[in-house]
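INTERNAL AUDIT FORM
Audit reference: QA-55
Scope: verify that the stored structure record matches its stored sequence.
Auditor: D.O.
Record contents follow.
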Amino acid sequence: MGTTTVDADTASVGGDSESAALLLSPNQVKIPRDTFQLAYIIYFTLGTGYLLPWNAFITAVDYFSFLYPDASVDRVFAVVYMLVGLTSVLIIIAFAHRSNAVVRINSGYALFLLSLVAVPLMDVWYVKGRVGVYGAYYVTVGVVGLCGVADGLVQGGVVGNAGELPERYMQAVVAGTAASDASAGVSGLSWEMLIRLSVLRRVLVSLLRVLTKAIYPQDANGLRKSANLYFIFSIVVMILNIIFYNVAHKLPVIKYYNDLKKVAANEEKEQKGELTGKLWRSTLWEIVGTVKWYGYGIMIIYVVTLCIFPGSITEDVHSDILKDWFPIVLIACYNVFDLVGKTLTPLYIMDNAKAAIGGTFARLLFLPLFYGCLHGPDILRSEIPVMILTCLLGLTNGYFTCVLMILAPKTVRLQHAETAGIVLVLYLIVGLAIGSILSWFWVL
């Protein structure tokens, strides 16, 4: 396996130069090369994959709304998913020093698979396309909660792992696309290839839903077939994510950074002793204090986004021209521009943390603007303003999330980067939970 000289990259590993010196020659710093960009592509796939189950449920809104017409499906799904996910991440943070990330993530993927399989199986054996079978609705809500548990296990672990690596891998996870930083000295994927990968993976969820809706007739049987095909596709992608994640640990470049983390952790253990009890709590609060403002920024991003998307977009805005296609088109617009925002970070990343955090609070302006689209003059309630605002909502959501998730783990020591990543996920889920609850105020 080839190696590459990366003196500047040592700092991006996590800033722990003393630990780096234990593994690296001071005269010639070398790390294993990411041959064929395989590790990069795997982390890109993992980053898009852990969002797939959530997207599977919210993008099939027409199917679930048809089956359960008296339920506010999107809002209930969002509240259950986020609150359960929040509880899951809190437990993970409390016991992060005693648990194994590989076991956590594989357990989460198993729960994701179980949740996705449950929907088509329940349709075939129990619901059978019948409307108003609310026993199945409660089971579906329970399955969404199971997805929330899985999300805490997988997202916290994957983001935490990426936080231990150079920033290009966090870009791959958060953005679904990235390019190597010029200072890294590692050749990256071409911009054109990144765009093709991103469109294939990140937006495929929405495009598949549009295609299945167009192929099948818009009756009970057509909705049923299209939704089942959609969930089957999601199951296949989730199986691929399980395979990719377990392959990643065998790659030399990932092994190298894992070894670097072990050296840093052993060094800290020799200096401070075993990180348990009071010492762990003290260390944890130190990590939280270091990344808290990045966390506040991430939290406010998702409070604003979830106040509006998906509930208001799929239930409260209407179009006489597009009819029931309007929410599907708006979800696709959001996903595409969320992708665009995240693909901007390889071209320009805002390295001023205060400016980036300030930008997240400026997104609060979306709330009165969308309120105007619901209750303002007729010109604001037309299709074009709603679509433009939805695109901007996705664009800013993608860019600022990616920037803050890249910057924050690099502010702590290498051995604590995983915990910092999980703490950021906690802030993210708190934002999602608050936003999903506040989304109910749009119906008042």
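Auditor finding: record pair retrieved intact. The longest strand covers residues 3-5.
Action required: none
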